[in-house]
Amino acid sequence: MMTITWRKWKVYIILTFLVLLTFPLLYWSRPPSVPAFANEEDEPRALLRVNTQEPHLALTFNVEWGEDIITETLETLDDYEISATFFVSGEWAERHPNLLEAIHEKNHELGILGYKGHRFSSMENYEIQESLKNTIKVFEKLDFAAPAYLYPPKGAFNAEVLKIADGENLNTVYGSIHPPLGTGSAMAEHILFHADNGDIIHLNATDESKGLPKALNIAVPVLKEQGYEFHTISSLASGMDIEIKKP
Fold first, then answer.
1. Which of 50, 136, 148, 234 is deepest in the core (most CB within 10 A)?
2. pTM, whole model, 2 decimals?
3. Alpha helices of the chain — where are they, by DSSP H?
4. Where are the domains of the chain?
């Protein structure tokens, strides 16, 4: 009996050690980021987060298809009096000019994903440039100011993508917190576990993100209770020390 018990304890000890060893790696291995916010060598980098002691956060959303979740998201943000930044595809904007107008009228900031939301890292340079230019033209056609921010579709980018975006006067934003699609409770738990001063929380507001409204209704009140304030990317980054990373 004593031998069996000790063997079990050895298994528990080994498993606990592996969990403790692995957890820091999982926690700190946030996805890469890089802008058109430049580094000391004046090379484009993407904005990861802002270095600040103030309890400031930014909520950002991707929108490339659907209208139900984005409508509910706008209502939820309105309830909490929060301004956020929305990255939309040019194709979606053309199909839903009324929703683009609703985002703008509620004092949210508009950025772009590219025209169809295709992964830039698998496209030729001229295709990326064409995608950005076409999306900017959509904004012009719909009487919106030229966008200042780009979120690389699917979060995929490389140095060439950053240079092309910079050439189109677009600042690339990646963010520091990326909750995976899932239940509202799971997404909220991810946000609340990771949120810290200066973080940029990136979420999908497409119709596949069914848990998003619930996630916001759980996480936002808790973060506000903890003293956090929510900002657009422009407001968060204004005059602040930004944190950037290479691709």
1. 50
2. 0.81
3. 2-28, 68-79, 90-95, 97-105, 125-141, 159-167, 184-194, 212-225, 233-237
4. 1-30, 33-245
Q: How far apart are CA 14 and CA 198, in angstroms?
A: 37
Task: Give the residue among 216, 241, 183 at the shortest CA–CA distance from 74.
Answer: 216
Written as six digits, the tokens of 23 are 């957890």
What CATH number does the domain located at 33-245 have? 3.20.20.370
Whether the CB-CB separation of 173 and 60 falls below 8 Å is answered with: yes
User: Cβ(101)–Cβ(144) under 8 Å?
Assistant: no
Q: pLDDT digits over 54-110, tens only?
A: 999 999 999 998 999 999 999 999 999 999 999 999 999 999 999 999 999 999 999
Mention every residue, 6+ apart, whose C-beta is less than 8 A from residue 204: 61, 62, 181, 212
Q: Does residue 11 carry a pLDDT above 80?
A: no
The candidate with the shortest Cα–Cα distance to 49, out of 149, 156, 177, is 177
For residue 196, the model assigns a pLDDT of 95
Q: For 123-157, how does the pLDDT look when each residue is reduced to its tens digit (9 = 90+)?
A: 899 999 999 999 999 999 999 998 999 999 888 88
- 49 - beta bridge partners? 243
Structure tokens that stand for 203 in this block: 């979420």
The C-alpha atoms of residue 116 and residue 21 are separated, in whole angstroms, by: 41
